Amino acid sequence: MGQNGFMVTTSFSICFFILLTLHTSRGDMSYSIEEEMRRGSVIGNIAKDLGLDAKSLSDRKARLDTDKTSRRLCDMNLSTGDLIVAERIDREEICGPRVSCALIYELILENPLEMHRIVIQIQDINDNSPRFSNDRIKLEIRESASKGARFPLDEAHDLDTGVNAVQRYFLDKNDHFKLAVNTNTDGGKYAELILDKELDREIQQEVSLLLTASDGGSPQRSGTAVIHVTVLDANDNIPVFSQAVYKVSLPENSPLDFVVVTVSATDADEGPNGEVTYDFGRVSDKVKNVFSLEQKTGEIRVKGQIDFEEESVYEMRIQSKDGLVPSIKNYYSLVTTSDLDREVVTDYNITITATDEGSPPLSSSKTIQLSVSDVNDNSPVFDKQSYGAQVTENNKPGSSICSVTARDPDWRQNGTVFYSLLPSEVNGVPVSSFLSINGDTGVIHAVRSFDYEQFRSFKAHVVARDNGSPPLSSNVTVSVHITDQNDNSPLILYPAPAGSSIMTEMVPRAAPAGSLVSKVIAVDADSGQNAWLSYQIVKSTDPGLFSIGQYSGEIRAQRDIVGTDSMKQNLVILVKDNGLPSLSATCTVYLVISDNLSDLPEVKNASYEEPSSKFTTYLIIALVSVSTFFLTFIILVVAVRLCHRRKPRLLFDGAVAIPSAYLPPNYADMEGAGTLRSSYNYDTYLTTGSRTSDFKFVTSYNDTLPPDQIVRNGTSDTGAEDVAVRTDVGQSLQVKVLFLCIKFK
Question: What's the total number of domains in the chain?
């Protein structure tokens, strides 16, 4: 007893140990592959994923186990540790219509014992085409079927799943039918044939349509079926006689049963609806005693004595009838003779009168009220062909911009309109990040704040859709225009903003009143009056010596410059726009009144701060020579001009050349509309703001160029440049400019 108890306890301990070991060593490994991979294709490396080398798999007798019912579609290469495809894997054969499809294996390793669960997810590929259960769909539709009538069609099936399954149906172009695609509760799609234009059996007895079902795979696959519609007859045609009046000459004493005339009427309908019978209308008893009428053939025969002396003329009314006789005695059908349109006439009051053929005839009447039910045959219509909205930049997000309105004459849900934005992009960004629309009211809101300087207008498309089945819709374009606010201060391009090297203009001491000595150039990113700039001097070393053009920014001498004027002149310029409120910026213009560069203390100091060299000595000699030549040339020019009794036009009646790097890329030169005008050409500038500044000196002589002469720029071997500059008043001035650049390092 004790021994048995010991054995049971021992066995239980061993089992518990094994179970515990299995539990702690078990782990899942997941792989994903596409179906129909070639045999031998590698799915993954088990050894690598387990952190083992391939040799240990063989040493530990690794193996893959599967259910007895499952085929061994995958295997393991013990020498490499690769998990490979062993047989053809067909997802549709293994899993059928299930969306998720997986193969499950157990990886077992010995010494020590380990078990791992391997799950291989099989992904679907588009290897099956949609198919109809019958490639020929037969429908019988009566020609009296009303517009909008629906006829369900067979659903196409695709063995693939997801997007590779059936996604859409197409119907070839025809005159009578259109297609509606619906979704089942299980996600499958089916189509319905909708009568879009009434059928007429007398014109076309059969209609053939091609129905195509396609999936969403890549490449796309499709299947087709032929819809054969047989148009059934409705009694929509009345019998028509071949003649309106039949005239016959009949000799008296004609024998009995003699055929006087045969009347004939035809009916375009078929079957019972086209079978015509004949009968007398309102005729006297005398006519009925003399003549008889064959109901089916229309033959009128002599039935009694024909006596000319008694009656020379007989007139009889014949009526024909087709088969819209009552199916039940004394019951008749009320049928339509044309299309009904609820939006034109909602209700009808129909009075039916039954009259007997007595003499006098007696009758009875009954009024029937007929209400026309609605079908969704009208699309929503916007009250405008397009909409425009204006919004000021820096608007608050969520503010309303405009509203759109569409109306649908249909009834109830068929006439209920919902609004949405059609997906589109504005500068590569979805329009939904700029606008939103209230689906019920059509009010359009701004999602974000707009920036006029970033973009000035964009378009969005609004869809109005009713709630009918199928829903009908229409589109309209909404153009959004962003108006400018004065949210940008003027940007001064010249002189350079604070922090850059100081730009100094040199003004000759002999400059007369009105001479142009410099120019402030500024731009404004706004538009319209918000970008109209004005200039004024707010501070100067010598008030009254210089003035600035209010709109041009040109700085000119207000009076003749004399020797007693301070050599250094600093002007603080205020540039402001014309917005409300106005924004402004300031800059400082540094002027030096001197005829000799050696008068500049900055230059003198800089030239002696570092050890000189022969090269520097040569440059200084060249500098003195050029300065002497320059002053001599200026004196000659002034003398010549005085001799001609003309007010001298100094070399400095130009402006400062602005390098292209100063011009921002977004500023355009628009005559009369922009903020930067290009009609000023500058021929010299001087900088003294740093120890590496360039000093440039010019000499010039007057010469006349043709008005259409273009600007030329050429460099000689000696470093001099010939520049032809067109002036702003239509005249031409050719200037010989000798540039000598000295860099102090």
Answer: 5
Q: What integer pLDDT is reported at residue 562 of this predicted model?
A: 85
One DSSP character per residue, 392-440 reads ESSPPTT-EEEE--EE--S-GGGG-EEEEEPP-EETTEEGGGTEEE-TT
> Nearest-CA neighbor of 154 among 205, 99, 95, 228?
228
Say what the pLDDT of residue 409 is: 93
| Same domain, yes or no: 147 and 218 | yes
- The pLDDT, as a whole number, for residue 620 is 84
Question: What is the 3-class SS of 554-598, one letter each residue?
Answer: EEEECCCCCCCCCCEEEEEEEEEECCCCCCEEEEEEEEEECCCHH
| Same domain for 469 and 409 | yes
- Per the listing, tokens 């919004």 go with 391
Sort strands 503-507 and 686-687 into parallel, antiparallel or unpaired: antiparallel
Among residues 499, 488, 685, which one has the least CA distance to residue 579?
488
Residue 84 domain-assigned (yes or no): yes
Outline where DSSP puts E strands in 124-263: 136-142, 150-152, 166-171, 177-183, 189-195, 206-215, 222-232, 240-241, 259-262
Phi, psi of 178, rounded to the nearest 5 degrees: -130, 175
Q: Nearest CA to 293 among 312, 325, 316?
A: 316
Where are the extended beta strands (E) located within 449-567? 457-466, 473-483, 491-494, 503-507, 516-519, 521-523, 533-540, 546-548, 554-557
Torsion of CA 249, 250, 252, 258, to 10 degrees: 170
In tens, the pLDDT along 658-672 reads 443 344 444 443 333
State whether 287 and 157 are in the same domain.
no
Q: How far apart are the first and last CA of the chain?
A: 110
Based on the domain organization, do 587 and 473 belong to the same domain? Answer: no
Residue 52's CATH number: 2.60.40.60
What single DSSP character describes residue 637? H
Shared domain for 411 and 458, answered yes or no, is: yes
Q: C-alpha dihedral over 258, 264, 270, 275, to 10 degrees?
A: -40
Burial annotation 624-655 (CB, 10 A radius, 16+ → b, else e): eebbeebeebbeebeeeeeeeeeebbbbbbbb
Mark which of 97, 123, 149 sits at the end of a domain: 123
Kindly give, in sequence order, each residue whose CB lies less than 8 Å from that of residue 122, ignoring residues fewer than 6 positions away: 33, 34, 35, 89, 91, 94, 95, 101, 102, 103
| Domain identity same for 479 and 495 | no
Give the separation between CA 280 and CA 288, rounded to whole angstroms: 9
Tokens found for residue 129 = 């085409």
The answer to whether 431 and 423 are in contact (CB under 8 A) is yes
Per-residue model confidence (pLDDT) at position 504: 79
Ranges under pLDDT 70 in the chain: 1-27, 68-70, 323, 325-331, 497-502, 597-615, 644-745
Question: Is the Cβ–Cβ distance between 168 and 145 less than 8 Å?
Answer: no
CB-based contacts of 353: which residues, under 8 Å, 6+ apart? 363, 364, 365
Q: 475 and 501 share a domain?
A: no
Q: Which residue has the tokens 């007997």?
A: 356
Q: How far is CA 207 from CA 136, 143, 196, 210, 227, in A?
A: 13, 12, 14, 10, 8
Domain boundary among 278, 305, 339: 339
Q: Confirm whether 349 is domain-assigned.
A: no
**Which secondary structure element, helix H or strand E, spans residue 388, and what is its range?**
strand 386-392
Structure tokens at 630: 């320059």
Helix (H) or strand (E) holding 46: helix 46-50
Residue 594: what pLDDT?
A: 83
Residue 598 shares a structural domain with residue 498: yes
Judge whether 180 lies within some domain.
yes
Domain that holds residue 45: 2-123
Burial class (CB in 10 A: 0-12, 13-18, 19+), 76: buried
**Which residues, 6+ apart, have CB-to-CB distance to 604 below 8 Å?**
598
CA atoms within 13 A on the CB side of 411: 11
